[in-house]
Amino acid sequence: MSAATNTFENVKATILSAHKNSTLKEKSDFYNSWAENYDQDVAILEYRAPSLAADSISSHFSGDREAAVVLDVACGTGLVAKQMKRHGFGRFVGIDGSEVMLELARKSGLYQDLKLSMLGEKPLPVQWGLFDVVVIVGSLSVGQVPVSVVRELCKATKPGGYVCMTTRNNCSNKEYKAALESELKEMEEEGLWASVEVTEVEEWERAVSEHEDGYISGVLYLYKKPQLQHSA
Fold first, then answer.
1. Which residue, 157, 200, 156, is CA-closest to 61?
2. Strand pairing partners for 114?
């Protein structure tokens, strides 16, 4: 489907069809088939999460951006890396469950390494404690990535590093969002990280559900992992 003939109604139908996918293979097949039109379709949705995440990380990150290594989880075609590049970040490792999405991310030339992995099926295929920034945008929602994955995001982050996550705040995602926030809070109580920013955004993206009109809201979370304590 060319960009010229694509409409919001078409995009809406595409996304609603994804909700019928229950197995990992069905999800992977869906994203493989969507990959080519993905960027233009989310532009029609006015999908702001990648730029909001990049802006948040940029406003808090005080280290050397050129040297910083970013783990982009569920990287898709590379929308988040593209936004973070604008803020001076240049070293990216991407993980995604779709081979075709990864191929498009590879063509962007932004990533030093790309790994194929279905999130939640196996542990993240990375070394723990390696990344200055870990970011996951768009995939922490019902029917996609299990809440338990956030512990792995934390493990992958260096002491003193940041983890940026987003989720939707629409009707179908309320239960997932509550479970996610419960886990984030529990991890904070365990001393695994500290909350830096929680931002609710009213106009997150255009609504696609049959029960919602206009825009849905969303939430961005930024956490910082504590620095290692040096014993005296």
1. 157
2. 94
Cα–Cα distance measured from residue 214 to residue 100, given in angstroms and rounded to the nearest whole number: 31
Band the pLDDT of 229: cuts 50, 70, 90.
low
In this structure, how many other beta carbons lie within 10 angstroms of the beta carbon of residue 162?
25
Structure tokens at 214: 């206009």
Residues 6+ apart with CB under 8 A from 24: 97, 118, 121
Q: Which of 69, 27, 10, 23 is nearest to 206 (CA)?
A: 10
What amino acid occupies position 198? V
Rounded to whole angstroms, the Cα distance separating 159 from 83 reads 24
Distance CA 60, CA 62 (A): 6
Residues 118, 149: Cα–Cα separation, whole Å: 11
Among 117, 133, 37, which residue's Cα sits nearest to residue 85?
Answer: 133
Spatial separation of the C-alpha atoms in residues 16 and 230, rounded to whole Å: 51
Question: 34 near 104, Cβ under 8 Å?
Answer: no
**pLDDT tens-place string over residues 86-116:** 999 999 999 999 999 999 999 999 999 999 9
Residues 114, 28, 209, 185: is their CA dihedral positive or negative?
Answer: negative
Residue 146 host element (H or E): none
Question: Reading across the β-sheet that carries 111-116, which strands appear in turn?
Answer: 111-116, 91-96, 69-73, 131-136, 157-168, 215-224, 194-206
**pTM recorded for the entire structure:** 0.93
Helix (H, G, I), strand (E, B) or coil at 148: coil
Written as six digits, the tokens of 27 are 């999800």
